[in-house]
Amino acid sequence: MYYQKLKKFPKNFLWGAASAAYQIEGAFDEDGKGPSIWDTFSKIPGKTFNGTNGDIAVDHYHRYKEDVRLMSEMGLKAYRFSIAWSRIIPDGDGEINSEGLKFYDNLINELIRYHIEPIVTLYHWDIPQALQDKYNGWESRKNIQAFKKYCQTVFKAFGDRVKYWVTFNEQNVFTAMGYRWASHPPNISDVKRMYAANHIVNLANAEAINLFHQMVPQGKIGPSFGYGPTYPITADPNDVLAADNADDFNNNWWLDVYCRGTYPALVMNHLKDLGIAPEVTLDDKKLLKSAKPDFLGINYYHGGTFQQNQIEHPDKTSQHEKDFSKTDPYLMQPKDTQAQTPEMAMFNNVENPYLHKTQWGWEIDSVGFRITLRRVYEKYQLPIMVTENGLGAHDKLEGNNEVNDQYRIDYLQTHITEMQRALTDGVDLLGYCAWSFTDLLSWLNGYKKRYGFVYVDRDDNGPKNLTRIPKKSFYWYRDFIQKNS
Question: Comparing C-alpha atoms, which of 480, 452, 307 is closest to residue 388?
Answer without folding.
Answer: 452
